[in-house]
Amino acid sequence: MIQRNGLRVLSLYEGFFSGGARVLHSTVVAGLHQGGRQQHSVLSLHHEVRREATLQRMEDDPRYRALRAAGVRIGSLGRSTDAGHDPRVFTRAELRTAAREAGGAHVVLSLKEQPLRLVNQDAFPDRPVIACLHRSDPEHQGDALGDLLTAADKGRLAAVVCCAESTRDAYREAGVPTSLLRVVPNGINLARFRPVQGARRLALRGAAGLPADATVVVYAARYDEMKNPELFLRSARAFLALEPDGHVLLCGAGMTAANPDLQADLAHIFADRPDLLGRLQLLGVRHDMELVYATADVVALTSAFGEAAPLCLIEGSMCGAVPVTTPVGDAPSIVERIGFVTSYDPAEIAATWIEAAARREELESARTAVRPRFSHVRMIAGYSSIIERTHREAASVAARV
Minimal CA–CA distance to 247: which of 217, 292, 274? Predict the structure, then answer.
């Protein structure tokens, strides 16, 4: 039986739905809870969230199931984004639930800044709060930046964990005190995300309907303006026209034939070459991305803004694909020596995908050399250190009062 010390930590989630931030934070929570030094729990503001035209229930989410399997207790305020109530107004019952959950914790983590609107309520217990940020565009976060700055002004924030240097720089410029900002780089489970060679790779390609000698580009992103799907599709059209053996796989929320906006994009961009669409697959949300990446030669990102340390580039490259990205957030430093950075020109992007695929084996040793840098063990240790330091400092202040 795991013996835990007295440090109890509550994480606040806006909700459970597909996204890299939830993947990473849930990895941290499960890892720390199973490590035995801390006891973690989660409170989700919503029990179901509508994203990319899909209503996602928390019980159906892989992160929810993984946390429960790790022994993490999960509660909810019971909200639904379809209910239509004001997201900034909380009922007395919701505040009582939040107070009970936070009152039993020594430290509170906020997954991104959105849950801080709950933390800033007068009824919320006085606990040190650590905000965990995963983007580099505070100006695109609606009221959330104001909630973050309010929490800092009220003395609620003990620290702000940034997943990338670009996140730290952006929020410092937005007015978050430098003394609060810490950087803990993203990490992944390297035992799960690893290269596949030979017959296994060919078998995965066969199961996916991909020719053995195809040049395969994977795009793992939700259908969202930030991810710039139109640029990706224009690049894909140029790539498929140039590369007769090229195939393109699109994964993520909204990357399905049921998305009318995506269908409109495809109809417009491929209007003069509908034949190319036979080599483009819409896979939607996948929970076996390590197998999808293992079929790929290239993992592509065409985002316009907001990225910090894109998970797809890390996961894809550690599975053996060459990362090719636009110059957003920390993406250029992530792909340094193992991939390529392009402009926002579709022709250049398509040509770079072809070059990257041709050099995949050449770059294998470089990818192997950087693997330890992306270990989730380092990430979890970084979060653990900040949480424990926050607890010690809060206990020291309380002892002096």
Answer: 217
